[in-house]
Amino acid sequence: MPSKLTIKDLHVSVGETPILRGVDLEMNQGEVHALMGPNGSGKSTLAYAIAGHPKYTVDGGSILLDGEDVLEMEPSDRARAGLFLAFQYPVTIPGVKVHDFLRHAISNVRNPDRKEGEELISMREFRKELRDRMSEQRIEPEFARRYLNDGFSGGEKKRMEILQLAMLKPKFAFLDETDSGLDTDAVNFVSESVRRLSTENEMGVLIITHHDRLLQYNVPSITHVMLGGRIVETGGAELAQELHTAGYEKIRERHPEAAVEQAEQEQVAGV
Amino acid sequence: MTTLAAPPTAFGRETFDAYVERLVEPAWVTERRQAAFDSYTELHGVELDPEEFKRVDLRILRPEKFALQTDASESAGFETRMQQARFAGHVAHVDGHCVRSELSEELAAKGVLFGDLATLLREHGDVLEPHLMTRGVRPETDRFSAWHAAYFTGGTVLYVPRGVVVKEALHSLIAHATDGVADFCHTLVVLEQGAEAVLLEETASANDDLAGLHVGAVELLLAPESRLRYVQLQNWNEKSFHFAHQSGRVEKDARLQWTVGGIGGKLAHVHQNVELDGRGADAEVNGVTFAIDKQKLSYFTQQTHHSPDTRSDLLYKEVLRDKARVVWRGMIKVDADAQRTDGFQRCDGLILSDDARADSVPGLEIEADDVRCTHAATAGRVDEEEIFYCTSRGLSEYEAMHMIVEGYFHEVYDRIAPSKRIAGWDDECDTPGDPLEVVRDTLSAAVLEKLDLGD
To answer: Residue B429 carries which DSSP code?
Structure first.
């Protein structure tokens, strides 16, 4: 049975500042969702809160994965349960090799009950898989022994995120502006990879983006629009299209209350 | 508080005379001990170098709590991780007495000497006399060097004759098995012209509870064109005191790669000197330390360039947690005629808790005008974003921390790792038993263990 992720009335703050003010969202495995909205509307906050970043405090509401309470889980357990966040700004970890990092990650995600120190997945199996996935992502084999994101270009970091996505095969992936900072060719390539992976793995994908390229390859079945920390509209692919061409003015007009809160949030964030 | 009024009675004249009485060694050795004992007595009236000792709290050292042991405590088994590697020879000392001395016949046939100092002084005194505490560690340097030179117990000697290349690594263990033990093990490595060797040395305590005192010395003497890789991993329990004068002398076109690990010890102070004596001499110095609880580790390093076209490159990586304190004071000295010196030093500290403290003080004293010398020191915390990134990929927080801390040391591992890379996949091409891999494994195991403690 396909998995289901249900977010209800989610309130999240960073420090003293409330960012999400009651988000409702439902996703089924295999669906492609687009999450749009002006800067500061809370899109990334939603992604981070789902992944369990300690700086984001959940003040209310719930996130359930097939009925399991995600908010009760440590970030590591969320990953093991099948949630994946592709970072907008992937972190550099000096001294930690891509290959070693991924082998640990995969061992845990494929064997969620694994404890530290217990056996990792077989080297032979892992090597073959990593080599294949790297070649699909057009990543040179030597990257396997480079330090994670250390000295990588923006594009290389993003491809590394997609490589992890391909290896970890989550049930739900949240792509936080994965297309930002990439040139057209790179965006096309990443977009195509996401499309293929989501089909192959029956992945649910939430795409956070300002651009439409990613959505041309990954036509969303559902588009959500955030404003002032709430999802104010939900529609089909045509809604994403409309926002690309017309911007958020109409949205603000239709949701004056959220627009005020959005303006306040923009002020706080200095957007 | 760096001046003691008089030599502690426990190591005074009576103890010394009784000790020397028991020893069976050449007359010149006893004479040197006598001279060193005189220095030891005098030096108690002399203040220790404040530059070197001002951050080292010697008040917690109570010499009267420690004593020389008359023999090795029987049957103390030391199954260190390092011993799992393949070695061409072993020397082990327990409580200052040699309990194991082995060398492959092949190397012995080539004239290599590898064994315990006491025996080799009797059998090959003529070979050792020009080298023992004459050019490397000098007894009169301070009260610790004099203390050691008066009382040195056993120790490990490696002598490699001219042109002999020893590819297989050799192993030396210095261990404590008795509560209250004082040991003064000495390590002497002499490579004649063009010789090559690898020596891995480690220290260990039989259990976590015994208090031990080690006042040691290391001398690495490299004749022209010789090559030495030497590792010393200080891995005492947290009740031990460790003092060591360590000296490397590198002659023309010789290369020294020297790695110190500091894991154990309640209080450790290491004075590490590397001297580039001949044109083209090259020394790489690596340090890896992990201090927890209330451990206090102190390193005073000097890279002294006496000749032109010499290179020295020092990298220390320190990790601290709890209330641990690590002090590093480094100095690059360049003599007036040591032109075209290339000198580098860097010390990085990674601090895992609020109460831990790292002090790093680099320094340069340059008299030549055509040199390239740089130094750097950094200190920082583990980035919360790094931890989150790892956990968001399914690693537990503990695994993430372990990986990040190990990653922190990786820069040093990469420098000492043997070059055996299969394209793309160097990490796990299993080579069990490779000695330098085992150094890494030992450190890695220590990291795991240390992350588990505290809190």
So the answer is: S
Among B144, B205, B215, smallest CA distance to B183 is for B215
| B157 neighbors B113 (Cβ within 8 angstroms) | yes
For the ranges B4-8, B95-99, B213-217, B394-398, the one whose mean pLDDT is highest? B213-217
Chain A residues touching chain B at CB-CB below 8 Å = 51-55, 74-76, 78-80, 84-85, 87, 90-91, 93-97, 99-101, 104-106, 108-109, 115-117, 123, 127, 131, 141-142, 144-145, 147, 164, 168
What DSSP element (H or E) covers B230? Answer: strand B227-234
Of B392, B396, B425, the CB nearest to A116: B396
C-alpha closest to that of B296 among B320, B274, B272, B275: B320
Interface test with B, best of A76, A129, A162 (most B CBs within 10 A): A76
With beta carbons under 8 A apart, name residues in chain A contacting B393. 79, 101, 105, 109, 164, 168
Instruction: Indicate whether B133 belongs to any domain.
Output: yes
pTM score over 0.90: no
Structure letter (DSSP) for residue B67: B
Question: A74–B397: do the CB atoms touch at under 8 Å?
Answer: yes
Distance separating alpha carbons of residues A150 and B427, to the nearest angstrom: 17
Q: Do B406 and A90 touch (CB under 8 A)?
A: no
CB B277 within 8 A of CB B253: no
Reading chain A (271 residues) residue by residue, the pLDDT tens digits are: 899 999 999 999 999 999 999 999 999 999 999 999 998 999 999 999 999 999 999 999 999 999 999 999 999 999 999 999 999 999 999 999 999 999 999 999 999 999 887 889 999 999 999 999 999 999 999 999 899 999 999 989 999 999 999 999 999 999 999 988 888 888 889 889 999 999 998 999 999 987 777 888 888 999 999 999 999 999 998 888 888 888 899 999 999 999 999 998 888 776 5
- Protein fold of A4-89+170-269: Rossmann fold (3.40.50)
| Dihedral class, residue A147 (left if φ above 0, else alpha if ψ from -120 to 50, else beta) | beta
**B417 chain-A contacts, CB cut-off 8 A:** none
Map tokens 């004649």 to a residue: B192
- Look up residue A155 and give its two tokens: 């594009």
Tokens (6 digits) for A63: 């996130």
Q: In this model, does residue B413 exceed pLDDT 90? A: no
Q: Give the pLDDT band (50/70/90) at residue B11.
A: very high
Q: Is B450 helix (H, G, I), strand (E, B) or coil?
A: helix
ipTM associated with this complex: 0.96
Domain ranges of chain A: 4-89+170-269
CB-CB neighbors (< 8 A) of A82 in chain B? none
What is the average pLDDT score of chain B? 91
Q: Is residue B51 part of a domain?
A: yes
- Round to whole Å and give the CA distance between B1 and A62: 61
Three-state secondary structure readout of B149-168: HHHCCCEEEEEECCCCECCC
Query: If pLDDT is split at 50, 70 and 90, which confidence band does B85 have?
Result: confident
Give φ, ψ of B428 to 5 degrees: -115, 15
* Domain carrying residue B40: 9-382
The rounded distance, in Å, linking the Cα atoms of B309 and B286 is 21
- Structural domain contains residue B135: yes
Distance CA B14, CA B26 (A): 21
Number of domains in chain B: 1
State the pLDDT confidence band at B74, using cuts at 50, 70 and 90: low
Query: For B93-122, what is the mean pLDDT?
Result: 96
Is B93 contained in some domain?
A: yes
**How many other C-beta atoms can be found within 10 angstroms of the C-beta atom of residue A236?**
13
Inter-chain touch A95–B399, beta carbons under 8 Å: no
Non-local CB neighbours of A185 within 8 Å, separated by 6+ positions: none
